[in-house]
Amino acid sequence: MNNASHLAFKEIWRNKGRFLLFSLVIALITVLILFVAALGEGLGAGNREYLEKLDGELIVFQATARLSIPSSRLERDRLPQLRNIEGVQDVGPVGFSAAAIPLGGRSDLFDVSLIGVEPGLPGMPPVVDGQPLIRRTTDEVLIDSTVALVTDAKVGDWLLFRSIQGSDEEFYRLRVVGITDSQKYSIRPSVFVPYVTWARIRPQALVGSGLNDLSSHIMVVKLVDPAEIDVVRQRIEARVSNVQAVDRRTAYENTPGYREQQSTLQTQNGFALLIGLLVIGGFFQIQTLQKVGQIGMLKAIGTPEVLIASALLIQIAIINAVGVGLGGLASLGLSFVFPANVPIIFEPRSAAMAVGSILVMGPLGGLVSIRYSLGIEPLTALGLSS
Amino acid sequence: MQTALEAQALIKTYTSGGRTVNAVDDISFGLANGEFLALVGPSGSGKTTLLAILAGLLTPDSGTVSIAGEVLSQMSERRRASFRRQRIGFAFQANNLVPYLSALENVELMLRLNGKRDRDGRRRARELLTRLGLEDRLNALPRQLSGGQQQRVAIARSLIHKPALVLADEPTASLDTERAFQVVETLADLVHEEGRAAIMVTHDLRMIKVCDRVVQLMDGKITQVLETQEDLACLANPADCTKIPMNVFGAGQEMAAAE
Description:
The complex is a heterodimer.
Chain A: H1 3-14, H2 16-52, E1 58-62, H3 78-83, E2 88-102, E3 109-117, E4 127-130, E5 140-144, H4 145-151, E6 158-165, E7 168-180, E8 190-194, H5 195-201, E9 218-223, H6 229-239, E10 243-247, H7 248-253, H8 258-290, H9 292-300, H10 305-337, H11 348-374
Chain B: E1 3-16, E2 19-32, E3 36-40, H1 47-54, E4 62-67, E5 70-71, H2 77-87, E6 88-91, H3 103-113, H4 119-131, H5 147-159, E7 165-169, H6 177-194, E8 197-201, E9 213-218, E10 221-226, H7 229-236, H8 254-258
Parallel strand pairs in B: 3-8, 3-9, 6-7, 7-8
Antiparallel strand pairs in B: 1-2, 1-4, 4-5, 9-10
């Protein structure tokens, strides 16, 4: 062990309580940063998950809707027009609305996104259990894994759905034929029904009136060659009137509130990091101020400045790493006890970025105290510093 | 006897409140190996400033300091730090020890810094601490040691790396008379035995009977030098003498010295 490490370890070891306490502060900051990142990921996924996982490369909107799903309306006749464009393999219409599943009694409702898809066409998610939707006009439903978890429904079970028709509540019984992975949309878990069924049961002014209008919100386009996305997009917009085609990312980034939500959470994360930076910087600065005489003595007896700075840096790195480790473990533990419907997702990449930024933040916060310690006069040890 | 330290025409002035103060005013003296010198004088006489110049911590306005034949003013800042580490031993009034290192680790610190913490070095550290009566306190932290024990650890640290010069700034200031004398006596014994040169700044005249020479400073100048055992003994015990050979504390403070 070199001299800097020796001094750093000895000071930590002989002041375990104080340093552990400070590591716990860093651990709390880590938990905060990780949870804000996980919340950002969870809420982001809650908005985009279905769109992000779509089995098509392009999403087509009504041009005048300015990429707003609720505002977009595409008539059925756009389907053959899109299919006939060179480079398009298949097209599927998708409609979005909301419904609720009564849990226990009819007053305890679990909100879900009710999504209409055409069986076998782009837009229908793959199942992880059971069968996909096959027939166009049945009372069959696919539920995503969160719905399955919350309702405890299994393939073959019947689920009751509530939908507002006019000013009344209507209830529909649908049979679960398959379960998909998590497919959240609009911060709600999703259920998928054949498009005609969706048109019939979705919230509307009069019961069943949706069957008279089978227009969809968007159409999902699967390409023959995904590498030709830009070329096909331009072809679609040139040959089909009043449509706008975008990739999946552009589509979900334009869902209502998505960007505002993400930028708010990123700002919160930035502030949490800044607070961490100031807390770490403040702690080590106070500690350095308390050690002025001792550092003066070390310099007077000829201790190289680089050794004093290295010892401080090693100390900061160790305390920071211990804090981040404890915070990471605490976050992991907490993530297991959160209910499934809480939008928290520990995505490895964003968690690694959050942890990485805290690890960098520690030494950055300590730079002021390192600089200060290097400026301490060795004459301090003789009482001549003034 | 070989010269350990040579100070030549040292001058250091400060400007304080528009007034120029001669903290060190044309001081020259030499110190041989194995010689233990006491630097005495009233507060503000320039003792600590002179000590800082001799240690290479403060640059004089003019004059030179050479230790073991090497001139401090010709060294870079980094080289001076390295020279202090290798050739000078320090014992301060306060802030003497690293609080999170044990007594033994504090002594061994000088060996670590000089890359000499081998088996012989570690054995010597234990021997020094044992010699200073701390054999059962080797693993105690400074906060677990009394003031006298801490000073003894500092003395062991100042000698462990076999320096050419030991500088001690009032090492007994916070100790009672009996403990203070024990500490200084042990320092003097070790300096004499190992042939090191040492300078001790002190206010306490009772400590100087173990010294070989006493230099009195007043307003930055050397005003008197005592070398004979008779004078030194008289200075240490003024009640036994008809004539006090040195007014260490300045005019009007003779009684305080005698008390």
